[in-house]
Backbone:
């Protein structure tokens, strides 16, 4: 199934495209960091900017920071197909930078150019810092290259939604034990090499994320660490120091690298100096090549990563009753390298135009993830070698801590059977009668023919804050809402239902649980749509040994009451109250 991501709504206009000509300030509103995206309406997809761009029709969209993984300066949004496009601009310039060029804070040279931004002096103010270097193309034409911090980051690792979010929330470095970094002389196959060793928090960083970030930690003079820290610190400081109201600030980064090769493509523009002389510039849309020229930019020759704090381990085994699970076999060493080509990367840098040249990662140092040292685990683990089940083999119970006791009880007791949809209806009845009777609450139960769905949807609202439950008939209630807790239109719920059905077909004849599968594999896609996929709620099943209760109906009601209470206390109160 083709999945759409990062969809944007635009006003009606003559052209069927919207051209992103600027990435503006970071804002913090509705408990979320967003960035101003500036779009012009565009008639056609060719590169003729003068004739097919309506410079009087432009809009500003304040969008979540995750949109940076797909939208860079120069991207074009296709209204009909609801997706971003990237044009293959021919303006490509290259430069070898031997010395340090820091981010400059001089007035942006393109202010005043009628083909840049109207009233640009108010939009690109003195707080915007950018890289300004002289490059040349293959015809030896020389131009001043203007490169936004966003463009640099989109090449390095802002092609990953999760890393973008972590960068703005100070979680890039907090995922590593920096104070425990080690370097030592290797032996065996590593004889003659200096090895760098660091532990990363597997609950904060995936393997891929740890591998992408690790080389920065071992760059000489801690320049990489300062660079990663700067992404967060500047924005955070500006917000922290804001005396009142909503604060907006341009992203700034610590950029004191030197001895590297840089190639960019973008849009050629010009201005005139005070003497009337024409000055040529290139506004960089994307970086097409970046590599460190220093033969030894690192303090080590090889990096070894050791995960800790994984979901399957704990330091206090004596406080847990081990639970039997079956896990895929984990190899002793998972050798992974940053000598990447485009074919080996899930997502290319935002706005990257795919051509025949090799995509080169600037950090060509070997990075491996080593098998964890023996840890005190909270499970009695049996391994199998079925790699296809790695992601979901233990996820049928979505929150192990929450449901461990009920699982053990279910094993010990005979369970009274009841249809899942019937049970869900009982839960909603109890919710309405016991917890949602206040007139400020509203409960809407969608009929299956209303949404053309085999699933059951329920909308809960409190003072115009909305959240949604969905029953699939498999014993786990899905929970979701808009990021702003706004109402979701019926047509969108119908679309989600269709998507959920497609996902159900994807896992057909497997042991995977639908809501776990959606949450683990498609949360990012829904975040792009402004939808938060929350942890599901498992049915608390009725059991025969409920004290003196013997009536089947009473047993069902008691179990449904427990589920209703759980939904109210852990989902409704925590979200819309």
Residues:
């Amino acid at each position: 199934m083709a999945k759409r991501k990062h969809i944007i709504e635009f006003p009606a206009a003559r052209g069927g495209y919207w051209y992103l000509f600027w990435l503006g300030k970071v804002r913090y509103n509705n408990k979320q960091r967003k960035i101003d995206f500036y779009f012009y309406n565009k008639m056609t997809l060719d590169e003729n900017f003068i004739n097919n761009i309506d410079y009087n029709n432009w809009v500003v969209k304040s969008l979540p920071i995750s949109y940076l993984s797909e939208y860079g300066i120069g991207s074009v949004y296709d209204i009909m197909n609801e997706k971003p496009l990237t044009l293959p601009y021919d303006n490509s310039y290259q430069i070898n930078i031997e010395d340090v060029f820091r981010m400059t804070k001089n007035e942006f040279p393109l202010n005043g150019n009628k083909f840049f931004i109207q009233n640009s002096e108010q939009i690109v103010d003195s707080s915007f810092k950018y890289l300004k270097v002289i490059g040349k193309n293959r015809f030896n034409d020389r131009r001043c290259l203007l490169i936004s911090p966003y463009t640099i980051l989109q090449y390095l690792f802002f092609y990953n939604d999760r890393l973008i979010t972590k960068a703005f929330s100070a979680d890039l470095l907090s995922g590593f034990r920096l104070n425990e970094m080690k370097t030592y002389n290797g032996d065996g196959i590593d004889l003659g090499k200096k090895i760098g060793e660091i532990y990363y928090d597997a609950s904060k960083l995936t393997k891929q994320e740890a591998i992408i970030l690790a080389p920065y930690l071992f760059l000489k003079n801690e320049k990489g660490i300062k660079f990663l820290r700067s992404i967060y610190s500047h924005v955070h400081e500006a917000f922290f120091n804001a005396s009142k109201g909503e604060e907006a600030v341009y992203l700034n980064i610590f950029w004191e690298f030197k001895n590297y090769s840089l190639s960019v493509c973008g849009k050629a523009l010009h201005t005139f100096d005070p003497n009337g002389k024409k000055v040529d510039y290139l506004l960089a849309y994307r970086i097409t090549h970046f590599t460190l020229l220093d033969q030894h930019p690192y303090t080590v020759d090889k990096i070894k990563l050791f995960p800790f704090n994984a979901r399957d381990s704990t330091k206090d085994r004596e406080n847990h009753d081990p639970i039997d699970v079956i896990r895929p076999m984990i190899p002793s060493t998972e050798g992974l390298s940053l000598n990447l080509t485009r074919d080996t990367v899930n997502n290319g840098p935002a706005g990257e135009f795919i051509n025949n040249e090799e995509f080169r990662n600037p950090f060509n140092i070997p990075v491996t993830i080593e098998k964890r040292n023996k840890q005190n685990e909270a499970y009695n683990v049996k391994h199998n070698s079925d790699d296809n089940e790695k992601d979901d083999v233990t996820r049928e119970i979505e929150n192990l801590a929450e449901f461990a006791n009920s699982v053990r009880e279910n094993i010990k007791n005979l369970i009274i059977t009841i249809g899942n949809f019937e049970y869900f209806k009982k839960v909603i009845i109890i919710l309405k009668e016991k917890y949602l009777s206040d007139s400020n609450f509203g409960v809407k139960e969608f009929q299956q023919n209303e949404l053309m769905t085999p699933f059951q949807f329920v909308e809960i609202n409190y003072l115009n804050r909305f959240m949604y439950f969905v029953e699939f008939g498999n014993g786990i209630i899905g929970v979701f809402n808009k990021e702003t807790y706004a109402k979701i239109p019926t047509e969108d719920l119908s679309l989600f239902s269709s998507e959920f059905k497609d996902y159900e077909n994807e896992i057909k004849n497997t042991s995977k649980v639908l809501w776990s599968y959606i949450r683990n594999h498609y949360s990012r896609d829904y975040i792009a749509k402004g939808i938060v996929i929350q942890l599901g709620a498992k049915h608390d099943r009725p059991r025969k040994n409920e004290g003196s209760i013997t009536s089947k109906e009473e047993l069902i009601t008691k179990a449904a009451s427990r589920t209703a209470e759980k939904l109210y206390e852990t989902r409704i109160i925590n979200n819309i109250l």
Remarks:
- The chain is about 25% helix and 30% strand.
- The CA atoms of residues 89 and 266 lie 6 Å apart.
- The longest strand covers residues 278-292.
